[in-house]
């Protein structure tokens, strides 16, 4: 009795009990399909976060001023004015681990174009900002170093601003807008970055040279120190250099700010990608959780297989008795039922895979969830279906193999 | 339950076993067919002591040396006639081609060449019994055990089945037949009568062919049935 004989017997038996076989498979189908869908959605969510981290730009560190303090009452982080444009220049020029540093000031202003208006974040920065964040242009150009120094009245706008202020057929480049009554010329539209992990629209933003922002928009706001900046964006030279750059920035700023060893930092260096990576970790936990829920349904499917196999063994006692009488060894009977369970599970797994793929496509297409089909997860799901079949099929198969031929032949 | 039953069946003999219900006919048949193990006594088959064999060893002998014909045919309903006949050969590890060929020839021998692809429920009772005889004979057994093979058949088809069994004898196969029917038993060379698990005086229809002792049960006792 070779493999093909055993397989033929198993397939014949499955085919002749279609309804029962289908019901047996149901649990496995649901299990495998949900594993495939869950892992696809999980890795989709993870890929989205990875994409968001990438949208920050690579090796980016953010330096924020310490909190302001008024007679012992501390304000929120970043409200201090301890960071200056000079700090940014020193970081960029003195530290070999740093590729670039861009000082930024920001405020929220109303932008008016013709009869349209929009309130948004306005960022005054240098041309390095776009290099650091690897932010490409959709149209137009960046501002030049001369424009940055001279305080030229030019702005770059995000995709959202472009759609809010201008018609589709209108080219925003070259258009004139007013920010806080100062006329500005749009010189470029930035490419789309999409929302951040927390859902903030990264394209709802306007950039202009930092000197322009100081002179035209924020002059009155930063009265204590006209050099103060709200944050400095830093690009480390490589991923490995990020922690070193972090330490060197801290050391440099302590030197520049004249802090004594006992004094705490009046600034903070953060790694926004690391913060997002922490979010990734939590989505990973979630997707494992979903996958384990799916595995539970595989186990439940396995138990239902055992159940139905036991019924099947009881119903087919005459067949077992006859096979034993004509000379089947116990292992032949055991193999027959085991292979039957295995084939049912693998068939169920294959159907589950197809259902899972369609389910994923449906969810991704209709609900717009990001999803990535993982071949590894599919192989694993099928493998688990097979293991389920062998594991839960073994006990009924053993019962069948241990039957007494006389009792079996006598039963109806 | 059998007590003090001692008997020899010679190779090529045609033996009928008769007796009322509960007399131990089925127990004796199960012991002869190695479907059961005796609780005491000795059982020999082809010179080999087979009293205490493991289930798989019994299965091996059943597979290669014995054939079974049941009153209720016991064909597998999900297999065609020819697949039913092939069954013993599958467990004898006979290759597919040879298996099909031998099963086909055997079906032809019982006159069912044109029924080989039919399902059991498409066959009449007589035809089903002929398929089961083909199945019993396909492995060229030394001993065929037939338990009331004509019990569910009318006289004419029963006679047909009996002539097939006699054809087996002619080819040298030993046949042991259980029956209630005296006219069926008349075909046999010898009738063993059981009553309350004991042997009654044997009756010989013919003088037994002198041959090597073939099968012997010695004081077989079955404690429980």
Automatic annotation (TrEMBL), chain A:
Please provide, in alphabetical order, the Gene Ontology terms of the cellular component aspect for this entry: plasma membrane
Q: Membrane spanning segments where? A: 21-45, 285-313, 337-366, 372-395
Lipid bilayer topology = Multi-pass membrane protein
Q: What InterPro entries does the record point to?
A: ABC3_permease_C, MacB_PCD, Macrolide_Exporter_MacB
Q: Where in the cell is it found?
A: Cell membrane
Question: Is-annotated flag, keyword Hydrolase?
Answer: no
All copies of the MacB-like periplasmic core domain together span 21-249
What UniProt keywords are attached to this protein's entry?
Cell membrane, Membrane, Transmembrane, Transmembrane helix
Please indicate if the UniProt record lists Transmembrane helix as a keyword.
Answer: yes
A Gene Ontology molecular function term of the record: transmembrane transporter activity
Q: Which residues form the ABC3 transporter permease C-terminal domain?
A: 293-405
| Protein family according to the UniProt entry | Belongs to the ABC-4 integral membrane protein family.
Q: Can you name this protein?
A: Putative ABC transport system permease protein
UniProtKB/TrEMBL annotation, chain B:
Instruction: Write out the GO MF terms.
Output: ATP binding; ATP hydrolysis activity; transmembrane transporter activity
An example Gene Ontology cellular component term from the record?
membrane protein complex
- Is Nucleotide-binding there in the keyword field? yes
Q: Which domain of life is it from?
A: Bacteria
Q: Which Pfam families match?
A: ABC_tran
What UniProt keywords apply to this chain's record, in alphabetical order? ATP-binding, Cell inner membrane, Cell membrane, Membrane, Nucleotide-binding, Transport
**ABC transporter domain: which residues?**
1-221
Please indicate if the UniProt record lists ATP-binding as a keyword.
Answer: yes
What PROSITE patterns does UniProt report for this protein, alphabetically? ABC_TRANSPORTER_1, ABC_TRANSPORTER_2
Q: Which family does it belong to?
A: Belongs to the ABC transporter superfamily. Macrolide exporter (TC 3.A.1.122) family.
PANTHER family documented for this protein: ABC TRANSPORTER ABCH.1 (PTHR24220:SF86), IMPORT ATP-BINDING PROTEIN (PTHR24220)
Q: What protein name applies here? A: Putative ABC transport system ATP-binding protein
């Amino acid at each position: 009795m070779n493999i093909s004989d055993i397989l033929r017997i198993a397939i014949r038996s499955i085919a002749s009990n279609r309804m029962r076989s289908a019901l047996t498979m149901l649990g496995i189908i649901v299990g495998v399909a949900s594993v495939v869908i869950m892992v696809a959605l999980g890795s989709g969510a993870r890929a989205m976060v990875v994409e968001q981290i990438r949208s920050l730009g690579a090796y980016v560190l953010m330096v924020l001023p310490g909190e302001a303090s008024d007679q012992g009452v501390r304000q929120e982080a970043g409200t201090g004015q301890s960071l200056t444009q000079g700090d940014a220049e020193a970081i960029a020029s003195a530290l070999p681990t740093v590729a670039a540093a861009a000082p930024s000031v920001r405020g929220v202003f109303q932008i008016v174009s013709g009869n349209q208006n929009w309130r948004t974040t306005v960022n005054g920065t240098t041309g390095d900002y776009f290099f650091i964040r690897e932010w490409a242009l959709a149209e137009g150009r960046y501002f030049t170093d001369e424009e940055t120094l001279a305080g030229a009245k030019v702005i770059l706008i995000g995709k959202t601003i472009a759609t809010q202020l201008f018609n589709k057929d209108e080219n925003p480049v070259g258009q004139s807008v007013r920010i806080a009554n100062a006329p500005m010329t749009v010189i470029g539209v930035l490419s789309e970055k999409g929302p951040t992990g927390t859902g903030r629209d990264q394209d709802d933003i306007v950039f202009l040279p930092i000197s322009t922002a100081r002179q035209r928009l924020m002059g009155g706001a930063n009265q204590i120190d006209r050099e103060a900046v709200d944050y400095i964006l830093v690009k480390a030279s490589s991923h490995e250099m990020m922690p070193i750059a972090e330490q060197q920035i801290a050391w440099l700023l302590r030197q520049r700010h004249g802090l004594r060893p006992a004094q705490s930092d009046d600034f903070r260096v953060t790694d926004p990608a690391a913060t997002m990576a922490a979010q990734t970790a939590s989505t990973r936990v979630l997707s494992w959780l979903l996958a384990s829920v799916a595995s539970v349904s595989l186990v439940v499917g396995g138990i239902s297989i055992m159940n139905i196999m036991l019924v099947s063994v009881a119903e087919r006692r005459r067949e077992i008795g006859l096979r034993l009488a004509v000379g089947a060894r116990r292992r032949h009977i055991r193999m027959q039922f085991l292979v039957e369970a295995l084939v049912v599970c693998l068939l169920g797994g294959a159907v589950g895979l197809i259902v899972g793929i369609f389910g994923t496509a449906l969810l991704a297409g209709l609900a717009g969830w990001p999803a990535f089909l993982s071949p590894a997860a599919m192989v694993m799901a099928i493998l688990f279906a097979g293991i389920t079949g062998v594991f839960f099929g073994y006990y009924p198969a053993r019962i069948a193999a241990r039957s007494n031929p006389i009792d079996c032949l006598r039963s109806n | 339950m059998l007590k003090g039953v001692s008997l020899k069946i010679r190779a090529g003999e045609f033996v009928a076993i008769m007796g009322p219900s509960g007399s131990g006919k089925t127990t004796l048949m199960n012991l002869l067919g190695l479907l059961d193990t005796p609780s005491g006594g000795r059982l020999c088959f082809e010179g080999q002591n087979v009293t205490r064999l493991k289930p798989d060893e019994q299965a091996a002998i059943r597979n290669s040396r014995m054939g079974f014909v049941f009153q209720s045919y016991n064909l597998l309903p999900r297999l065609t006639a020819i697949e039913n006949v092939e069954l013993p050969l599958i467990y004898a590890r006979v290759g597919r081609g040879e298996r099909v060929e031998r099963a086909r020839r055997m079906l032809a021998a019982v006159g069912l060449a044109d029924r080989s692809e039919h399902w059991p429920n498409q066959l009449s009772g007589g035809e089903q019994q002929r398929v089961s005889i083909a199945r019993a004979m396909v492995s060229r057994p030394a001993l065929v055990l037939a338990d009331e093979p004509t019990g569910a058949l009318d006289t004419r088809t029963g006679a047909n089945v009996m002539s097939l069994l006699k054809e087996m004898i002619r080819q040298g196969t030993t046949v042991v037949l259980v029956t209630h029917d005296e006219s069926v038993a008349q075909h046999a060379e010898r009738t063993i009568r059981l009553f309350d698990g004991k042997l009654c005086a044997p009756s010989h229809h013919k003088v037994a062919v002198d041959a090597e002792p073939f099968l012997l049960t010695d004081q077989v006792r079955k404690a429980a049935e």
